[in-house]
């Protein structure tokens, strides 16, 4: 097993080292794009690829960027639908960060002539 595979398999999003204190009182937006998301279709097993876009206004904590990258990479061997993966990412980040605002967009590459974009915005739910 390669060191990157081991790091992904052993990754635990609940580790406190994955989060840093937000040292700023003002509202600002953190905008992150992760263009290499991959998961497996739960029905066919074919790979699904997406760009995950995350925007949030932090409250007391921010996520460490390497931890976010590894968390996103941890989906690569999972059988999970577009909708479930986007919602799991949103729910995990929302519960761990408790941000003032969070938006997650999962823009999946077309497969079978279908292009799916899932958007979850905390101000709209």
From TrEMBL:
Enzyme class (EC, first level): oxidoreductase
GO biological process, one term: tRNA queuosine(34) biosynthetic process
Principal subcellular localisation of the protein: cytoplasm
Enzyme Commission numbers on file: 1.7.1.13
GO molecular function: preQ1 synthase activity
Pathway of action: tRNA modification; tRNA-queuosine biosynthesis
Keyword Nucleus recorded: no
Catalytic activity field: 7-aminomethyl-7-carbaguanine + 2 NADP(+) = 7-cyano-7-carbaguanine + 2 NADPH + 3 H(+)
Binding site for substrate: 63-65, 82-83
Any one GO cellular component localisation term in the record: cytoplasm
Pfam families membership: QueF
Compartments where found: Cytoplasm
Active site: 41 (thioimide intermediate), 48 (proton donor)
Keywords, alphabetical: Cytoplasm, NADP, Oxidoreductase, Queuosine biosynthesis
Purpose of the protein: Catalyzes the NADPH-dependent reduction of 7-cyano-7-deazaguanine (preQ0) to 7-aminomethyl-7-deazaguanine (preQ1).
Family: Belongs to the GTP cyclohydrolase I family. QueF type 1 subfamily.
Name this polypeptide is given: NADPH-dependent 7-cyano-7-deazaguanine reductase
Organism: Arcobacter cryaerophilus gv. pseudocryaerophilus
Lineage, opening ranks: Bacteria, Pseudomonadati, Campylobacterota, Epsilonproteobacteria, Campylobacterales
């Amino acid at each position: 097993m390669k060191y990157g595979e081991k790091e992904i398999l052993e990754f635990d999003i609940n580790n406190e080292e994955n989060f840093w204190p937000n040292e700023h009182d003002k509202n600002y937006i953190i905008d992150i794009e992760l263009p290499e998301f991959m998961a497996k279709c739960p029905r066919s097993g074919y790979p699904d690829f997406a760009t995950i876009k995350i925007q949030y206004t932090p409250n007391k904590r921010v996520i460490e960027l390497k931890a976010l990258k590894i968390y996103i990479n941890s989906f690569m061997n999972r059988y999970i639908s577009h909708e479930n993966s986007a919602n799991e990412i949103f729910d995990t980040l929302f519960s761990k960060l408790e941000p003032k605002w969070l938006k997650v967009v999962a823009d999946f590459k077309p497969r079978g002539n279908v292009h799916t974009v899932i958007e979850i915005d905390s101000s709209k739910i």
